[in-house]
Specification:
Structural class of chain A: alpha+beta
Number of domains of chain A: 3
Largest sheet of chain B: 5 strands, antiparallel
Radius of gyration of chain B: 19 Å
Shape of chain A: globular
Number of strands of chain B: 14
Number of helices of chain B: 12
Distance between the termini of chain A: 82 Å
Order of helices and strands of chain B: EHEHEEEHHHHHHEEHEEEEEEEHHH
Oligomer: heterodimer
CATH architecture of the largest domain in chain A: 2-Layer Sandwich
Number of domains of chain B: 3
Strand content of chain A: 25-35%
Strand content of chain B: 25-35%
Shape of chain B: globular
Radius of gyration of chain A: 28 Å
Number of strands of chain A: 35
Bound molecules: flavin-adenine dinucleotide
CATH topology of the largest domain in chain B: Uridine Diphospho-n-acetylenolpyruvylglucosamine Reductase, domain 3
Distance between the termini of chain B: 54 Å
Strand order of the largest sheet of chain A: 3-7-1-16-13-14-15
CATH architecture of the largest domain in chain B: 2-Layer Sandwich
Largest sheet of chain A: 7 strands, mixed
CATH topology of the largest domain in chain A: Aldehyde Oxidoreductase, domain 4
Helix content of chain A: 25-40%
CATH class of the largest domain in chain A: Alpha Beta
Chain lengths: 806, 288
């Protein structure tokens, strides 16, 4: 080779493949305001839908009169449950095996429930008419407290299934009971508690919160009466699932439904489910023969579509006196609101909650979850976490701190002692999960060193002394959290949605000139898929990432997939992408062998080309091979260069991380200021470090919001009091702390490129870390647990209860 | 989140605006920066059929000294209050307060007149105006009248303004040179109304409080002037025991609502904490 030939490293760098901090290609349009969102869509003759909603938390509808609304100029139709009944759509199935009212049928079960759908020539006319739909309500007793849902005389939430003793997940214990779900070995766990030297028990609430993406849920439905075809544009994290469910519900054949998810402004789980607004828009389009747009406003988004969490966890840990955990038990009440519309893999009504033994070597563990109905909005989605993993991580990380406190051990030291050790992987947890890989101790050690942990503890000690002497009114808290996620749902033996296995897909076509297109069953909502999938292809095929178009969201062109949530895109579709590339590469190798007149096995891969072993001058680049694939394929070989892969992962992946946080608390106002936050993540192979960092920053900011101020709150009358950003705490750049990030890199052994998924780690690990920091500030005064959110008044109340305001 | 329909008017003089408001009566409404009114219209809590936009009325703009007073036109934005050298040198508490109102985007359009006329106990300027002893210039059917800020607020969204009145200017007596001041506001985030806030303006003489005035924000249906608390402090050195008594007197006149910021008892306590801190900071700034 002469000096002008670029080195392998130079050629690799040009590809902008794995490990490259490639700038996000989608940002070119986003930062210029040129994204194409659902609300940008305007079709000729399009109508606008708006919903009449219930002011009551629980009430019987005694009269519903749409005459005045229908008379408003511009109003074309008003749908009610009675209208929907004529097409058998007053109720719809949920992903969780329940049914849900599309429009209130006889009664309303939560505030802001959908009661009628007005369709008009303009949004303004629709909004005017909404006010004129006359509804009379007869209020019913309300229950918004999940702990009271199964009381003998609790208000009956679901009259439709009041007498049903069997639910979608087995026997029901009470008319407000949804399901019971258990995991682990109860006898073994009970035995561990009998023998334990030390035990703790705490009631830990993860409040109801909301994913609140900046773009709310919306859709445009357009039914072509002549062809009998429905096109549905919408904010869908899982477009194919919407198509299939849409077909099952509407009886329109699936090939006559076209679902298109254009650019999405954040999803975080909010945009997985099927909502009343979608069904109403579809029916309205069928009825009117015109396209119908439905756009949710902020209040509607926060108060009706897809809340998250609302887990009430009674947790216990058993331990030896020298600090080795021996058992875990947890009993949880899960508030599902009025309908069980949570988006879980169908067999898992409490999701993957049994990851609750966390990162620790628990020999015995057991958990039981009871789902209940209340007069609150339905949902229970996985808000930036794999199904219910955040709740589990929060619970175990709080409980570990409480045990450390009881033992008089440092929380980091206590974790270090109980973390699953490197040599134990693959590790089977007491709940039966197979953790594939990890080096936990190294991660925690690195985080402790980076933050100078022992020095922080010394400083805290000095500050506590000063506080006791009355020299300061500030308390310092140090939060430690070590989390293990379980993502990449999932192996078909474990996961399906309504019977559809949770595989995912990639279809790659390489064009003659060496560029190509990759279509996938996932759907980016801001994660940067157009950038990262192309990087996988760049490294696998030796073609520059810039030469690859990544396309998602159109069910007519994309291969079937289950969508993007639960950090599954990289673990599942990322794997499918690599596998499809490998099929293409194998074919390219045969073409190269033919062209170079050698045997396939005499070739070796060199960054972007195949070369003859021992004779590197003789080579064919992937670009040359692409041309050849359409031009001079070996005799008998099909021309073309494309492949599709449906990837059914052999296991979940298990990203983990060690987070440390320092807060300073003003005891007199209750204000907790985050002084420092350090996040070390291991997501396996790092595809694009810059995107990873962005994901971590975003997720930590969400975690900060959740831990420090968020709660979707209902008053006892069933009024939701936090339905706007004036009341629901959404941090801005001003409140958001500075984030320090770091990483280790233990690749997943079963994933084709070793990647584990990262989007959700910071939300999962961040919440317990903030909460542990706030709790740690007060622990020396004997306080074991303060409930989230740690907003000013609640922290102040904790201080008040400890007598700190005398 | 879509307001009802309305007609939009943009007069260029106070007289023209008054004429329009008189014509439309209860159906008409003045709009200044719109950052309190428009959110209420979007929720359809306010449904004016006619909006009279004041932005083109040059007479309602500007900040000027008038003898011992400073007169600020109603349409002066909160952003302009922050940038005024005259205010910074004469009544610096206005800059300090403005910087704590809402967020920069709101402050670019939100006006002082709108802030004090709105009647929302969450607005920050009214308590500061009560603290400073400001007077509002009001133009109505019967010509101009002047109403003391301390007399202006009657209930939530209920003020001395009558239908068709325009607030044209705010007149503030300049506090003596060397006065100390502070506006302490507890809030959850930028753009949030106060959990509780306290405005203090005081003068010191020989280590003792010579004069003192206190306003409280968002801890009752109206902004509060804590007259009794200030009286307790007069003549004191702001020693801990006296401050404690004054704070108790201030807390006693609060009657906050419970909301997402916290229960009523907490917000009362926070009024006390904000006052304690404002007093300490005002004292540290006072000369004499
Ligand atoms: C996100 C957000 C956060 C905010 N946070 C704060 C905060 O922390 N502190 C705070 O003080 N404010 C806050 N505000 C309110 C903001 O400061 C408003 O701009 C201000 O309250 C009203 O001023 P305006 O010019 O926008 O008035 P408008 O909204 O136009 O009018 C308000 C009311 O006053 C009447 N009005 C206006 N001008 C006159 C006049 N000259 N004569 C008679 N009546 C008049 C109107 O008819 C209307 O009833 C916030 C607003 C928003 C949107």
């Amino acid at each position: 080779m002469n000096d002008m030939t670029p080195t392998a490293a130079e050629r690799a760098a040009k590809l902008e493949g794995l490990g490259c901090k490639r700038k996000r290609v989608e940002d070119i349009r986003f930062v210029q305001g040129k994204g194409n969102y659902v609300d940008d869509l305007k079709l000729p003759g399009m109508l606008y839908g708006d919903l009449v909603r219930s002011p009551h938390g629980h009430a019987r509808i005694t009269r519903l009169d749409t005459t005045k609304a229908a008379a408003v100029p511009g109003v074309v139709a008003v749908l009610t449950a009675d209208v929907l009944k004529t097409v058998n759509l007053a109720w719809m199935p949920t992903l969780a095996g329940d049914v849900q009212m599309v429009l209130a049928d006889g009664k309303v079960l939560f505030q802001n429930q959908e009661v009628a759908f007005v369709v008009a020539e303009s949004r303004e006319a629709a909004a005017d008419a909404v006010e004129l739909v006359e509804v009379e309500y007869e209020p019913l007793p309300v229950n918004v407290d999940p702990l009271k849902a199964m009381a003998p005389n609790a208000p009956v939430i679901r009259e439709d299934i009041k007498d049903k003793t069997d639910g979608a997940h087995g026997k029901r214990k009470h008319y407000n009971h949804v399901f019971s779900w258990q995991a682990g070995d109860k006898a073994a766990a009970d035995a561990a508690f009998e023998k334990a030297d030390v035990k703790i028990r705490e009631f830990i609430v993860y409040p109801r919160v909301h994913p609140c993406p900046l773009e709310t849920c919306q859709c445009v439905a357009s039914f072509d009466k002549i062809e009998g075809e429905l096109t549905l544009w919408g904010t869908f994290q899982a477009p194919h699932v919407i198509r299939t469910v849409g077909s099952l519900i509407s009886k329109i054949p699936e090939h006559k439904i076209h679902v298109i998810a254009p650019d999405i402004g954040g999803g975080f789980g909010n945009k997985v489910g099927a909502y009343s607004g979608y069904i109403c828009a579809i029916v309205a389009s069928i009825v009117t023969g015109r396209p119908v747009k439905w756009t949710e406003d902020r209040i509607e988004n926060l108060s009706t579509t897809a809340f998250a969490r609302d887990f009430h966890m009674d947790v216990e840990i058993a331990c030896t006196k020298d600090g080795k955990v021996t058992g875990l038990r947890c009993y949880t009440i899960a508030d599902h609101g009025a309908f069980d519309a949570c988006a879980n893999a169908t067999k898992w009504p409490a999701g993957l909650f049994s990851i609750i033994s966390g990162s620790y070597d628990f020999p015995a563990a057991y958990c039981l979850v009871d789902g209940v109905y209340t007069n609150k909005a339905p949902g229970g989605v996985a808000y930036r976490c794999s199904f219910r993993v955040t709740e589990a991580a929060y619970c175990i990380e709080r409980a570990m701190d409480i045990m450390a406190q009881k033992l008089g051990m440092d929380p980091a030291e206590f974790r270090m002692k109980n973390l699953i050790r490197r040599e134990q992987f693959p590790y089977t947890s007491a709940f039966g999960w197979q953790y594939d890989s990890g080096d936990y101790q190294t991660a925690l050690k690195k985080a402790m060193e980076a933050t100078n942990y022992t020095k922080l503890r010394d400083e805290q000690k000095a500050k506590r002394e000063a506080f006791k002497r009355g020299e300061t009114r500030e308390l310092m808290g140090i939060g430690v959290a070590f989390f293990t996620e379980i993502v990449g749902a999932g192996p078909s033996r474990a996961c399906d949605i309504l019977g559809i296995a949770m595989f995912d897909s990639a279809e790659i076509r390489i064009h003659p000139t060496g560029s190509g297109i990759c279509r996938l069953g996932t759907k980016s909502q801001g994660q940067g898929h157009e950038t990262t999938y192309a990087q996988i292809i760049a490294t696998e095929l030796g073609l520059p990432a810039d030469n690859i178009t990544v396309e998602e969201g159109n069910t007519d062109t994309a291969p079937y997939g289950l969508g993007t949530y639960g950090s599954r895109s990289t673990p599942v579709s990322g794997a499918a992408t690599a596998m499809a590339c490998r099929k293409i590469k194998a074919k390219a190798q045969m073409i190269a062998a033919y062209m170079l007149e050698v045997h396939d096995d005499d070739l070796e891969w060199d960054v972007d080309r195949f070369r003859v072993k021992g004779n590197p001058e003789r080579s064919k680049t992937m670009t040359e091979l692409a041309w050849a694939a359409y031009h001079e394929v070996p005799p008998g070989m099909e021309p073309g260069l494309e492949a599709i892969n449906y990837y059914d992962p052999p296991n979940f992946t298990f990203p983990y991380g060690a987070y440390i946080c320092v807060v300073d608390i003003d005891v007199d106002t209750g204000m907790a200021k985050v002084r420092r936050f350090f996040a070390l993540d291991d997501c396996g192979t790092r595809i694009n470090p810059m995107i990873i960092e962005g994901q971590i920053h975003g997720g930590l900011t969400e975690a900060f919001g959740i831990a420090m101020g968020q709660e979707i709150h209902y008053d006892p009358d069933g009024n939701v009091t936090t339905a706007s950003f004036m009341d629901y705490f959404l941090p801005t750049a001003v409140e958001t702390p500075h984030w320090e990030t770091d990483w280790t890199e233990v690749p997943s052994p079963h994933h084709p490129i070793g990647a584990k998924g990262v989007g959700e780690s910071p939300n999962v690990g961040g919440v317990p870390c903030f909460s542990n920091a706030v709790n740690d500030a007060f622990s020396f005064l004997g306080s074991t647990h303060i409930q989230m959110p740690h907003d000013h008044w609640r922290v102040w109340t904790a201080a008040e209860n400890l007598g700190l305001h005398q | 989140m879509i307001p009802g329909s309305f007609e939009y008017h943009r007069p260029s003089s106070v007289q023209e605006a008054l004429g329009l408001l008189a014509k439309w009566g209860d159906d008409g409404r003045a709009i200044a920066g719109g950052h309190s009114l428009i959110p209420m219209m979007k929720l359809r809590l306010a449904k004016p059929a006619h909006l009279v936009d004041l932005r083109d009325i040059a007479d309602l703009k500007g900040i000027r000294a008038d003898g011992n007073d400073i007169v600020i036109g109603a349409m002066t934005t909160q952003y302009e209050l922050i940038g005024s050298n005259l205010l910074v040198s004469k009544i610096p508490i206005l800059r300090e307060t403005s910087l704590q109102v809402a967020d920069p985007q709101v402050r670019y359009v939100g006006t002082l007149g709108g802030n004090v006329a709105n009647g929302d106990p969450g607005n920050d300027m009214p308590a500061v105006m009560m603290c400073l002893g400001a007077t509002y210039h009001v133009m109505g059917k019967a010509g101009e009248r002047r109403v003391a800020a301390r007399e202006f607020y009657q209930g939530a969204y209920f003020t001395a303004l009558e239908a068709g009145d325009l607030l044209t200017a705010v007149r503030i007596p300049m506090p003596p040179a060397g006065h100390g001041y502070a506006y302490e506001k507890l809030k959850r985030k930028i753009g949030d109304y106060a959990t509780a806030a306290a405005a203090v303006v005081l003068t010191m003489s020989g280590g003792k409080v010579a004069s003192c005035s206190i306003g409280l924000t968002n801890v009752a249906e109206t902004p509060l002037w804590a007259e009794e608390a200030a009286k307790i402090l007069n003549g004191s050195s702001l020693d801990a025991a006296t401050v404690k008594r004054a704070v108790a007197a201030a807390e006693a006149i609060t009657a906050p609502a419970a909301d997402a910021r916290g229960p009523a008892a907490y917000r009362t306590k926070m009024a006390g904490v904000m006052l304690t801190r404002a007093l300490a900071r005002a004292k540290s700034k006072a000369h004499g």
